[in-house]
TrEMBL record:
It holds the Pfam family N6_N4_Mtase. Keywords: Methyltransferase, Transferase. The keyword Ribosomal protein does not apply. Gene3D superfamilies: Vaccinia Virus protein VP39. PROSITE patterns: N6_MTASE. One of its GO terms (molecular function) is DNA binding. One of its GO terms (biological process) is methylation. InterPro entries: DNA_methylase_N4/N6 (IPR002941), DNA_methylase_N6_adenine_CS (IPR002052), SAM-dependent_MTases_sf (IPR029063). The keyword Methyltransferase applies. This is DNA methylase N-4/N-6 domain-containing protein. Residues 53-160 form the DNA methylase N-4/N-6 domain. It comes from Glaesserella parasuis ZJ0906.
Length: 165
């Protein structure tokens, strides 16, 4: 339930009333809304959701710089790698034993993300790279290639367990 448009007093009273009438309030909700930096959010989720998540999709910064995003998107490659590595460690601990992770990325850091993911999940748990069409634009005279796609890198936590999409 999104209570963000209500006053803090009303929010507190509503949650208190619902908790009293429903008993275990958490068992009656089917989602969690977190407004946070992803690193803090992943840490917050650890206590409740460790090894319970079936599927994670992330869309990290592509590290291209100057894309007009409100977040930083122009790290040194090593800094970007550390940022991603730290978050993937937390994400992996949320996955159950047959869980899967899908990560969007473009050509700029695709190979780097694959190496980081292989090191954390194991090469044996790599499922594949899915090309995703992002534009049907044709290259101009001065372009050699048109960038019309990005990728989704997929891994599972344990490939030996049944994996059904």
């Amino acid at each position: 339930m999104d209570t963000s448009l209500f006053s803090a007093t009303f929010q507190s009273a509503l949650i208190s009333t619902l908790s009293r009438s429903l008993g275990d309030f958490d068992s009656h909700i089917n989602g969690t809304l977190i407004h946070s930096d992803n690193f803090q959010a992943l840490n917050l989720l650890q206590a409740r959701y460790r090894e319970q998540v079936k599927c994670i999709y992330i869309d990290p910064p592509y590290n291209t710089g100057g894309d007009g995003f409100i977040y930083k998107d122009g790290y040194q490659s090593a800094s970007w790698g550390t940022l991603i590595h730290n978050r993937l460690i937390l994400a992996k601990s949320l996955l159950n034993q047959s869980g899967a992770i899908f990560q969007s990325i473009d050509d700029n850091e695709q190979a780097h993300l694959k190496l980081i993911s292989d090191s954390l999940f194991g090469k044996e748990n790599f499922i594949g790279v899915i090309p995703r069409l992002t534009s049907a634009q044709r290259p101009s005279q001065e372009d050699y290639f048109s960038i019309t796609h990005d990728y989704i890198i997929s891994h599972v936590k344990n490939k030996n367990l049944i994996f059904i999409m």
